[in-house]
Every structure is written in structure tokens, then in C-alpha cells.
Amino acid sequence: MGLLFVETLPGPKVFKCKFCKVDSASHDAIVSKDFHGRYGRAYLFKKVVNISLGPTEDRQLMTGLHTVNDIYCSSCQQMLGWRYEKAYCDSQKYKEGKYILEKSRVLKEGW
Ligand SMILES: [Zn+2]
Q1: DSSP state letter for 75
Q2: What is the pLDDT of residue 5?
Q3: Closest CA to 4 of 68, 55, 72, 70
Q4: Domain named Yippee: which ranges (predicted)?
Q5: Consecutive sets of 10 residues in the chain, 111 residues long: mean pLDDT of each?
Q6: How far apart are the CA of 89 and the centre of ligand 1, in A?
Q7: pTM beyond cutoff 0.70
């Protein structure tokens, strides 16, 4: 492994990877706090940083069929959530291109 470029977000309110503590998302990027992940509560973000995408797959979620990619911390490779690539139901289209971070896999820093 070479040196990894890590993007730092402006504070004060930043979510960090729980495992290696690199920045994951800014508080300002939250779209909704009312989501459910694999491990409980989850947040929807319009932008996250320092992640890599897993393979594209179709997944049946509580709100219907979606095409998603799991997202992994680019620093420690832990799975942090997923990205919505495509929603098949019109009412869910707003999620396309947005990201879920599992609350249990990120740390809040600065508040
Ligand atoms: Zn990490």
C-alpha cells in the first residue's frame, strides 16, 4: 500500500470513520436522519469523502428495489454504508447519487 490521499472536511461538525477516524461526511451534507441501515439507524448524505465503491448490485430495500453500491472507507476498507445508484420507484428517485452512512459505523466529532 502506498500513501493514501485523505480529504479533510471543514468543521466543526464532521462524521468520521469509526475504525480509522478519517473524515467521512460533513454535517451540512445530511439530507435525512430518518433512515435504517443494516445495523440500525442510518443517515442519508448528499456527499461523502474518503470512500471507495463496491460492485453495483440490485437490492430489495424496505422502500423497494434499488441499484446500490456498498461504500467502504478508502483508508481502512471497512464497510460504512451504501450509495443509491438507481431507484425504480418515482417517489424514491431523490435518493439517486446519495449515500447512506450507518450510524453505528461513524463517529460524530465537534458536537
Ligand atoms: Zn476507516
Answers
A1: T
A2: 83
A3: 72
A4: 13-110
A5: 78 94 96 94 97 96 94 97 96 97 94 72
A6: 32
A7: yes
Contacts of 10 (CB under 8 A, 6+ apart): 26
Cα(41) to ligand 1 centroid in Å equals 19
Domains of the chain: 14-109 (2.170.150.20)
Q: How far is the CA of 75 from the centre of ligand 1 (A)?
A: 5
- pLDDT of amino acid 69: 98
Measure 69 CA to ligand 1 centroid, in angstroms.
17
Any residues with CB less than 8 A from the CB of 27 and at least 6 apart, and which?
13, 14, 15, 110, 111
Q: How far is the CA of 72 from the centre of ligand 1 (A)?
A: 8
Rounded distance from Cα 80 to ligand 1 centre (Å): 8
DSSP secondary structure letter of residue 13: S
